[in-house]
Amino acid sequence: MQVYLNGTFLDQDKALVSVSDRGFVFGDGVYEVTRVVEGKFFMEKEHLVRLDEGLNGLKIDLDSDTKKQIPEISRELIKRNGQADDEASVYLQITRGAVWPRTHTFPDPPVKPTLYLSSGKFSPHTDLHQSGVDTIKVPDVRWARCNLKTINLLPNTLAKQQAIDAGVNSAVMVRDGVITESPNANIFGVRDGELYTYPASNYILSGITRSAVTTIAKNLGIPLHFNPIREDELYTFDELFFSGTTTDIQPINRVDGKVIGSGKPGAIVKSIQKAYSEMLHSL
Question: Taken in order 218, 221, 223, 229, is the CA torsion positive or negative?
């Protein structure tokens, strides 16, 4: 497989990054994952806008010419990897760059950021979309800048692993008595035919697929409330589902062993799944 690293396409096993790269020693960087369907990039503009927000939030200065080349690089990458005629995903990561000695302050003068892209074939989790998944609740112990899509994902990884160790698919994260999101997806609840989700803030990463769901809800005439779902009211909801770039629209059947609604995907999530699939494949 080919990857792109700092201006060069090369074999993945030959791609090397300095041990003094701040992404390696500090987790000092941002990333994006973009879905590709038959060579067409889904909501690419939105991903690039969020990438800019992350770079600005971390004060990483990637020159404008390189930013403009990212779409072209991404397309060349899936072409080289033989993924332009099928479903794929492109991973993009930018770190502050390599500098020595290691210090907590930013390099002065600044160094050139490290730009890395890879791609892979993507197979939707169709069986889970149809059956739904079980989850557990875990405390949301992440930092208070979750709106920045940084590569510092240890709390997310620990939460996801806790779910796997418990024998379920994923976790529902709880902060101050309310549901925020999952380790790698946003969460929506359905009650009396209306949608509820955590408001955009620094406590969640407002996902690109989440944005698609809000558009779908509007088009389908489903009322949408940007109100947090309280932990103590979770089991009063008729439906619950995740949304994410690689998650798609994934129904949740149980949380901590307790059934949500009927315990199987409901009418609202099915209608959103159908509309999302049409959106994804009508590029």
Answer: negative
The band of 141, judged by pLDDT with boundaries at 50, 70 and 90, is very high
Q: For residue 218, what are the contacts with CB-CB under 8 A and spacing of at least 6?
A: 224
Predicted confidence at residue 87, as pLDDT, reads: 96
pLDDT of residue 283: 76
Write out pLDDT tens, residues 30-74.
999 999 999 999 999 999 999 999 999 999 999 999 999 999 999
Q: Quick count: other Cβ atoms within 10 Å of Cβ 276?
A: 19
Q: What residues does 137 pair with on adjacent strands? A: 172
| Interatomic CA distance for residues 216 and 214, integer angstroms | 5
Q: Provide the Cα torsion 166, 169, 175, 179; round to 10°.
A: -130
Which residues in 75-89 are b (16+ Cβ under 10 Å) and which e? bbbbeebebbeeebb
Cα–Cα distances in angstroms (integers) from residue 87 to residues 40, 103, 109, 279, in the given order: 9, 41, 42, 14
To the query of whether residue 149 is one of the catalytic residues in this protein, the response is: yes
pLDDT at position 86: 92
State the span(s) of the chain assigned CATH 3.20.10.10. Answer: 126-280
Q: Determine the Cα–Cα distance for residues 83 and 250; give it in Å rounded to an integer.
A: 25
Every domain of the chain with CATH number 3.30.470.10 lies at 2-121
CATH match of 2-121 with 3.20.20.450: no
Among the listed residues 149, 258, 264, 270, the single catalytic one is: 149
CATH architecture of the domain with range 126-280: Alpha-Beta Barrel (3.20)
